[in-house]
Each structure stands twice: as structure tokens, then as C-alpha cells.
Amino acid sequence: MNLFTSLMRTVVPIVAGLVLGLAARVGLDLDDATAAAYVTAGLTAGYYALWRALEELADRIGWEPLRTLAGLLLGWAKPPQYEQPATVPLKVRLSFDADELARHVAGVVERGGGTLR
Prior knowledge:
The protein is mostly helical. It contains four helices and no strands.
């Protein structure tokens, strides 16, 4: 989800800035400056979305020149890398039989390459 995450990290602050700007004003009359702010925010988000999507596409198909160009036009030649959280499957058994538990432990040990003594 690198593409979605990076898009949201750019678009959300732009929208938040617009909302805060509107909140600072009591009236919602759209003068030239307000209209220009909306157009600027829209064009900025569109520019970023286009080049970030092209960067992701180039990375997936292995086309290095396009990835580099898109990265440079975004201000950095390498796309952001976000760590994926580690997940560990967990099984919980609420009731067990002692013999069944011993068989299960022996199976786990054997799969690990060891033996029970």
C-alpha cells in the first residue's frame, strides 16, 4: 500500500490546509484568492497523484528511466518505503488432553529438526 499511503500523506495535509483556511473565515464568499487556492490545491494533488502513480507503475514493470524521472519530479529519486508490521499466527487451545499435548509438542520439536529426550 505504499502508493495509497504516500498519496494520503500528501493529499490530506492539502485538504486540511484548505479546511483550516475556510474555518478562519466566517463567510464563504468565493473571491479570486479563494478560487485560486482551490485550483492550486487541486492541481497540486493531481500532479502528485499522476507522478506517484507513474513511479509505482515503472517500479512494477521494471522501467528504471520512468521511475527515476517520476521520482525526480516528485523531489526525490526513490519512492518512499514503509515497513510492513510483522505478524505472527497464533493458535490458542482452550482445552487439551495431556497425551494430545505431548503428541503436539513432539510434532513441533520434530518439525524443528530436534528430538525429545
